[in-house]
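Pipeline run #58 for the internal structure catalog. This entry was flagged by the ingest filter as a single-chain record with no existing model, so it goes straight to prediction. Upstream metadata was stripped on purpose; only the residue string is passed forward. Reviewer on rotation: M.T. Logging verbosity set to normal.
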Amino acid sequence: VDDETQLREAAARGRVIVTTNIRDFVRLHAQWLKEKRPPHAGIVLFSQQEFGIGEIVRRLAHLSQVVSRRK
């Protein structure tokens, strides 16, 4: 499934995209804003070279806790 379809489907479901595909999703987000599309739930970007899967999972769990407390 292409990146735009993933973001569109996630937005329709109120889901956040988590990806290491920084270049494409930064471009896609900019395009999304330029076209004044409805807001999406977010895009969480991780550098594949900087973080292993364990660290990514820990950081996502922490982010989820922080966001849940704010609701």
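catalog note: DSSP finds three helices and two strands in the chain.
catalog note: The CA atoms of residues 5 and 14 lie 14 Å apart.
status: ready for reviewer M.T.
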